[in-house]
Amino acid sequence: MTTTPSLDFHGRVAIVTGAGGGLGRQHALALARRGAKVLINDLGGAVDGQGGSATAAERVAQEIRDMGGEALANGASVTDFAAVQAMVQQAVDAWGRVDVLVNNAGILRDKSFAKMELDDFRLVVDVHLMGAVHCTKAVWSIMNAQKYGRIVMTSSSSGLYGNFGQSNYGAAKMALVGLMQTLSLEGAKNNIHVNCLAPTAATRMTEGLMPQEVLDALKPEAVVPAMLVLAHESAPTRTVLCAGAGTFEAAHITLTQGVHLGLGELVPEQLAARLAEVTDRNGEQVPQSGSAQGTNEVSQAMAAHR
User: Fold this and answer.
1) Which residues contact 221 (CB under 8 A, 6 or more apart)?
2) Exactly one of 15, 74, 169, 229 is catalytic; which is it?
3) 169 is catalytic
4) What is the pLDDT of residues 208-228, one digit of tens each?
5) Is 132 left (phi over 0), alpha (psi -120 to 50) or beta?
6) Which of 111, 154, 229, 260 pairs with 197 at a CA distance of 20 to 30 A?
7) What distance in Å separates the CA atoms of residue 72 and residue 145, rounded to the nearest whole number?
8) Taking residues 45-71, what's their average pLDDT?
9) Is 88 a residue whose pLDDT tops 90?
10) Which residues, 6 or more positions from 36, have their beta carbon under 8 angstroms from its beta carbon?
């Protein structure tokens, strides 16, 4: 007797970008196996973003059809908003709705900041950040109208914590966390949940960067459960879920209690002297919105003057 997975996607329509190979392909296959109709988007370019071919997307779409699922292929660049709008319309024309968007498309152009050309910085931000913005904007009104949506941004430990040689990639990936924070607030009233996935996986982007035994442990399939949790109707919202090698963690942006010093000529020196207290993580909070910072600051100021 087999048990039906509780994370079921029958009746759902999903778009996965960068799904022609690697992690995106595994995301698309997993959604399809659990019943979703999936639009496979992939420009079909190299790791650095050069070139393009719809073959990769069509190959994965055919793979899904061969196992009895429903899939469409699309070769749009996520940097082209008009093409992204047409991609979303393709899914709506075929299936009438879009329930899940997994923003997975990305490229790498790694160099130390001193050696990096600004064009390489700009292109990586354009693909990762603006690509996710384009795709999310194209589905946003649809999800609001149907009062349902699940959006997964693909962040990275390089954005959350930094990584040498990836200033462009890290900046874009942390920006996606900020985008998620605000969109989750704006989408809440219409049941649109927005989350971030920070994967560690062996893909074209990580070949040659790690020993083979490490790459063997970091199979893309091991990340997929986190994506399914974040894309399902039972998903949380405003969650940064980290995943790799079958291990799962959560990342939080926290706010310490801080110290009230008020105004005065010697406040800079006082702050320098008490910086350890300001950065002390004892009693820190995970704010529910940006207003928490101002609330904490003003409340301490008011208390000091009572």
Assistant:
1) 26
2) 169
3) yes
4) 666 777 778 889 999 999 999
5) alpha
6) 111
7) 23
8) 80
9) yes
10) 9, 10, 12, 13, 14, 99, 100
